[in-house]
Amino acid sequence: MDELSGVLTVVDDFVWGPVMLVLLVGTGIWLTVRLRFRTWRNLGYAIASTFSRESRNAVRGEGDIPPFSALMTALAATIGTGNIVGVATAMVSGGPGALVWMWISAAFGLSSKFSECMLAIKYREVNEKGEMSGGPMYTMKKAYKNKRLGAAMGWIFALLAVVASFGIGNMTQANSISEALHTTFLFQPAIIGIVLTILALLIIVGGIKSISKVSSVVVPLMAVFYVIAGLIVIIINYRNLPAGLYMIFSMAFSVKAVGGGLCGTITAAMMNALHYGVARGVFSNEAGMGSAAITAAAATTDHPVRQGYINMTGTFWDTIVVCTITGLCIASSGVLGMVDAKGEYVKGAALTIAAFRSALGDVGAWLVTIGIALFAFSTILGWEYHGEKAFEYLFGTHRYNMIYRVVFSLIVYVGATTSLNIVWSFSDIANALMAIPNLITLLVLSGSIAKDVDAFQPVIEAEKSARKKNRS
């Protein structure tokens, strides 16, 4: 078992190494330039569209759920432990400058997220049940001129997505909830597992409409709850904020390893900050992974580009907003660089808890624990739909979806009650490998994506003008 764990760790480090990070960020940079920075220039329009009345109601075009619900379900899968645990780990391993590289990767990740979601709607299908089915696997199958190659790539993507759904989207999340609640409140893992399994069954068995209804309420509430709590911590520690920001930016671009000040004994150079910032940022917002595109395909919309912009904002909310709150809490609290009784750096959830506790005492620890539980449970819901649609693609029919839903829900109990070191590594590898065919597809279809974006731009300009007139 130890040998297998060692092998998986080596493979995990390789697939999430420099080549993968260059491919992920490089694809985002290429698409951003190819789209003439429209994803940046239209970000305000995209955010306004997200909160519009039309986005909350399925009134324009065809689909299963409203555009806002599709975004919230996708966010349910992406806003997870990475926003709390991942940020803290990146700032310890890569220094506080890692936060800047999370922002930079997210800025280019907007284009990757936009493109994969737009293509998913463009090439989606209606299954025998009358439901929308889409995602990178359908894009690969239908968009490639070489149909055999496209079908093979789509099948590989779907298989890896199913594996990732049970691992990174299910068991590891349930395990995070169990550990957090047991550590803070001393709840027994078996009881936590039973409660989580029952809740998952009640919601997941109802399919995408049930999942989206819960996500549309839980995701905004949990995000606002966490952001407000984080802002309170930052305000209480406001005296340290300028020094914290200086530390973040200076260590992000320092060629020599530097440290000291609010980061204690941590020293890190720019390449270290870049590596951990990009890796944890991508893990958090999943831009370029292709998973969010599966949910985007269910949206009711009259144009793929319109929903692509709405789903694109998921990367903004996940990394630029939620991850930033965690990072600033840590940077302004003076806890970065703390060591535990064994003399090792405090990182992960424990570091974020220490940051909140510095301002709010034990209440801060409770808030972070509740945040982890909500974020991780929402990830289970969102990833169930991703996995289900990939499962449907593999079998070519929706008839076995209910079996997948029940099994997926029952596996939650296993995650909550079992040690998962091997599962973490295995599912992390699957998560990375499913990105490769998706990123290749985005690069191959970048010309087609650019044409669709250019064609839709006059519609955006007209809607912007109409909104200005309504305000005046």
TrEMBL record:
Its membrane topology: Multi-pass membrane protein
Single Gene Ontology MF annotation: amino acid:sodium symporter activity
Transmembrane in keyword set: yes
Transmembrane regions: 14-33, 70-92, 98-121, 149-168, 180-205, 217-238, 244-270, 316-339, 363-383, 403-423
Gene3D superfamilies registered for this protein in UniProt: Amino acid/polyamine transporter I (1.20.1740.10)
Main location: membrane
Subcellular location: Cell membrane
Keywords attached to this entry: Cell membrane, Membrane, Symport, Transmembrane, Transmembrane helix, Transport
Entry GO terms, CC: plasma membrane
Family named by the database record: Belongs to the alanine or glycine:cation symporter (AGCS) (TC 2.A.25) family.
Protein name: Sodium:alanine symporter family protein
Organism, as annotated: Roseburia porci
